[in-house]
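re: ur question from yesterday

yeah so i grabbed the chain u mentioned. its 104 aa long if i counted rite. heres the sequnce exactly as i have it in my notes:
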Amino acid sequence: MNALKKKLEGNLNERLKLRETEHNKLLQRYQNVKKEIENQQNIERIKFENAFKGKLGSRPATGNQRSVMGSRMMGSKMNSMSKMGGSRGMGMAGNPASKPSHMM
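ran it thru and got these structure tokens back, copy pasting raw so excuse formatting
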């Protein structure tokens, strides 16, 4: 009975070792593929940035930055207009139709 038990334990240990080595191989493969994809993305990003560097020279504010600055300026105009009694054609309380009143 002990011999059978030792044989079963030996088989189990062998399968566990095999499973662990397979797991390590898969993990290494995954890490290699991930690193390769990250490298390709970095190369593409660098090419993209270099392609636009020469065209733009010193870069002006991006579209997002311009829209933020514009919305701040528009907000200050709206506040000054509402203090002066509102404006015509802007709907109720001087709010544009595209913005709810709780957004102001």
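noticed a couple things. The longest helix spans residues 2-56. also The radius of gyration is 33 Å.
anyway ttyl
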